[in-house]
Amino acid sequence: MSYLDEHARAVIRPVKRMVEDEFLARPGVIGVDIGEKYTGGRPTGRAAIVVYVCAKGPHHPQQIPAEIGGVPTDVVAETILLHRARLSRSSEVLGEPGAAERHAVLRGGLSIGPARSVRVVPPEVPVAGEYVIVGTLGAFVVTRTDRKVLGLTTFHVGCVDDSWSVGDEFLHPSRVDGGVAGADLVAVLDRAALAGAVSAAGLRMGARPFRAEVLDIGALTGTAPAVVGSSVRKRGRTTGLTYGVVTSVDATVRLDFGGGIGVRTLRDQIRVHSAERFGDHGDSGAVLVDADNRVVGLYVGGTGSTGFANPVDPVLRLLDVELLTPGVPESRRPEPAA
User: Fold this and answer.
1) Using CA atoms, how far apart are residues 56 and 78, in angstroms rounded to an integer?
2) Partners of residue 121 on adjacent β-strands
3) Which of 61, 90, 145, 321 is such that its CA lies 20 to 30 A from the CA of 275?
4) CA torsion sign, 175 to 124 to 188 to 241?
5) CA-CA distance, 322 to 230, in Å (whole number)?
6) Bridge partners of 149?
7) If you average pLDDT over residues 156-170, what whole number do you get?
């Protein structure tokens, strides 16, 4: 797989931004990105505006111009799903429930979910009913003003639907994984953001001890921008530790959040490709970590070998937090970290 250099991306970026909303308004289009042009399944070496469609058909070449302002386009079939998982009270699984991991000391990469159940109806699910949700606790952050420690996850795990409120209780393990309301309470919803490049939520931690590290990855060292061509890892509740390569930092995608929230557009997303499965339902909220254990993104979803993540800087900015690392003085941690 080849990667376009930053100069090629910088040239195309303003053209892509100019047309992406128009393209996204067309039937079947779910994303607009920058990548290499393929013809007949073979790379051409030319940089292109890549248009993701939910199912590639004969009408797509007609509805998407062959080029825009001298920049070629490429239409690619893609599926992008939010990777939280649901379990109905009748035990019908939507997503993949995992064997429960129960940890006395919390770290990133673990199962977490709201104590409340949510009403979900078709077409989101086959059968209407009450469902419980699970995602991943990605890392820990600290509020910039009053130094509260929060657990970081995505909006669609932390808020779920339009009936969320500050103070909603969260469990580890999640109810999907056998967690029990009250006994397994570890946090409450403190803040959330769904705008621009960000689907994120901060959960105010309770008395359960925690460490500023990610299971199977280790202590976090800070944050950094994602770099095209670089290797990344994530530790998700469902797939565990997986590896991939950043293939773009320019993806704009339309995602259906359901639950009265509807379809939202996330811009400037990180696209990751893996030789195997990179993520699955229940992994939303995991952090993407580079070779130096710096957080570069917040995983939201994808399909199979492809994953998408928020860039970390706007996540921290909109939540008004900073990443918690072992280098933060103990006096600045309002909760235990042992």
Assistant:
1) 9
2) none
3) 61
4) positive
5) 23
6) 142
7) 95
Cα(265)–Cα(325) distance, integer angstroms: 31
Residue 153 backbone phi and psi in degrees, to 5: -150, -170
| pLDDT tens digits, 28-73 | 999 999 999 998 889 888 899 999 998 665 555 458 999 998 999 9
3-state secondary structure of 333: coil
**What structural domains and CATH numbers belong to the chain?**
6-78 (3.30.70), 85-215+322-328 (no CATH), 218-318 (2.40.10.10)
Query: Which run of H or of E encompasses 137?
Result: strand 129-137
**Strands 129-137 and 118-120, bridge-based pairing:** antiparallel
How many Å is the Cα radius of gyration of the chain?
20
Is 0.85 surpassed by the pTM of this model? yes
Greatest Cα pair distance in the chain: 62
Closest residue by Cα to residue 20 from 199, 254, 193, 227: 254
**Confidence at residue 96, expressed as pLDDT on a 0 to 100 scale:** 47
**171-210 burial by CB neighbour count: b if 16+ within 10 A, else e?**
bbbbbbbebeeeebbbbbbbbbbbeebbbbbbbbbbebeb
DSSP 169-214: EEESS-GGGT--TTTTEEEEEEEEEEETTEEEEEEEE-SS-EEEEE
- Tokens of residue 271, six digits: 């696209």
Tell which residue, 185, 222, 245, 238, has the closest CA to residue 296.
Answer: 222
Which residue bears the tokens 């195997």? 276
DSSP 8-state class, residue 255: E
